[in-house]
Write a structure and sequence with these properties.
114 residues, mainly alpha
């Protein structure tokens, strides 16, 4: 985000791992496990559509889970605050989409998969 000039987004996502404040490598999870972690940190109630099956998650107490959910909510809120004025229909061109489009136009022919 810093590279394309979206410093507010860069600041808000600088420590993105705080959104998942668990000792779990989110990139190593399969789709079902990632959904389980997301439901867990969001504070989703177990029931018909969600069950905790991962041993890494079963070890957390209800109080610890509340703290994790609060950190997740805080991180998401910070990101939402940073992006709210940048991505709306009436956002200025030098914010959000304008910056992204100019970056993509400039680098359209770059080989990103080196």
């Amino acid at each position: 985000m810093y590279e394309i000039g979206l410093d507010k987004i860069g600041d808000a996502t600088k420590n993105i791992e705080q959104i998942f404040p668990l000792n779990i490598d989110a990139f190593s999870l399969d789709e079902d496990q990632l959904c389980e972690v997301v439901n867990f940190v969001r504070g989703s109630r177990e029931g018909k559509y969600f069950t905790i099956t991962m041993e890494e998650l079963k070890g957390y107490t209800p109080e610890e889970r509340k703290q994790i959910t609060a950190k997740y909510s805080e991180a998401c809120e910070k990101l939402e605050d940073a992006t709210e004025s940048m991505w709306g229909y009436n956002s200025p061109d030098n914010e959000g989409w304008g910056v992204v489009s100019r970056y993509l136009e400039k680098h359209l022919l770059d080989n990103f998969w080196k």
